[in-house]
Amino acid sequence: MKRTYILLCFIIVKFIIHYFLIGPEYDLQRDEFLHLDQGNHLAWGYLSVPPVTSWISYIIKLLGNSIFWVKFFPALFGALTIYIVWKAIEELGGNLFALIFGASCITLSILFRLNILYQPNSLDVLCWTAFYYFIIKYLNTAQAKYIYCIAITFAIGFLNKYNLIFLLMGVFPAILLTSERKVLLNKHLYFGAILAFLLILPNLIWQYDNDFPVYHHLKELSETQLMNVSRWDFIKSQFLFFPGTFPFLILGLFSLLRYQEFKKYRLLFWSFFITIGVFVFFKAKDYYAIGIYPIYFAFGAVYISKLLDNKTGRFVKPVLIIWTIVSFIPVYNIAFPNKSPQYIENHLDEYKKLGMLTWEDGKEHHLPQDFADMQGWKELARKVDDIYSKMPSPKNTLILCDNYGQAGAINYYSEQGIRAVSFNADYINWFDLDIKYDHVIRVKNASERNNELKETSPYFQRSQISDSITNRFAREYGTTIFSFTNAKIDINERVKKEIEEERF
Description:
Shape: globular
Number of helices: 23
Helix content: 55-70%
Radius of gyration: 25 Å
Distance between the termini: 60 Å
Oligomer: single chain
């Protein structure tokens, strides 16, 4: 019962800290808007992600679509990750110190960074951790039910984010390198594989019916973002994710080789390095690998508790737990949007030395990219609302944006319930062409706005620049809002043509 109370305290602390990590100066983040909008268009797949996030978005919608619930679910997945690490420590024979220490390492960590954003990443880390946990359970018991738990976990993780493929690319070679290769003779392994396949089949069919958009998404990602990813920067970032507690993770890995009681789990040693190697080879983004770490803190916590099972340990154990708290303070002060943009601008060197000012374009800016992606959205929605209300016939007005962030932010923050669209991401499939459009509100990126009036105004009786985003800290700073009224052409036919061109 004591252990249960302590675990509950960790989970409560997790939620309390979670709601203090984002300052009032920040809006939702760009990607969050897209994921929330997917809840309005349920399907078995999307151009950039599998379907699970849309199901959660639908639940959030039913709960009122408030910021509280948007932030609740990633926090919940973070709390469940703590719970699974706790159960893994128990399974490995850890004592109370190991439980508290391991839970501290996971709770007070950069995982908060993932958990503050409503993206597939928090559930992804949870699925990685659960997958490894069920491997431990199977190795301890040889019970077939854990193979099916692994299969179901993989299916959920795959339907949440395709990143789980990297886990399999690490685990299967590791199985072949160890005595656990005998599992290949177990019929339940193949039944489990069939179960996983059947669970993900609807998404695979959706991918086939839509010409495998995941391939085109990965190609675009490689050409526009991953080309700026340095393999060396990826490796360095891994040490920064858990700056104060990373040595304990290394001890966890070391224990898989040196601690006799952990010999049966040695495939997880090889799996770690193979998976990291695959990430490096494919020049993956650094945070893709975060899911691999939590389970190894469980091994580290148990191993350290065994090493400190002596008189000296009585004094060292509380110091280690205090250290997890102390080492988190610098992370809390710099890794989260809990400081105003003005503060960050006045302390750029602190962020620059950690590489936080380098964006996906490979250039340095005055705000971390995630933080800049949480600026200017309410301003955009408010200004579009105002322009929309002044259009000759608002219901016949198409709000057309350049990217999914703009469209999603307008849809989320609009007080008039307007629905913006874009030829970008999944919004290309969400145009309502049953409406006969006569007017257009055009939201244009700052870098592409100069020729908009010249190119579009001939098709309308009246054209003008109506407003723009003036928040200089926003990634969308300078984004311009044009209004075009009384079309001289059939807008719907033009949109249909653009959609076909974008798809092909």
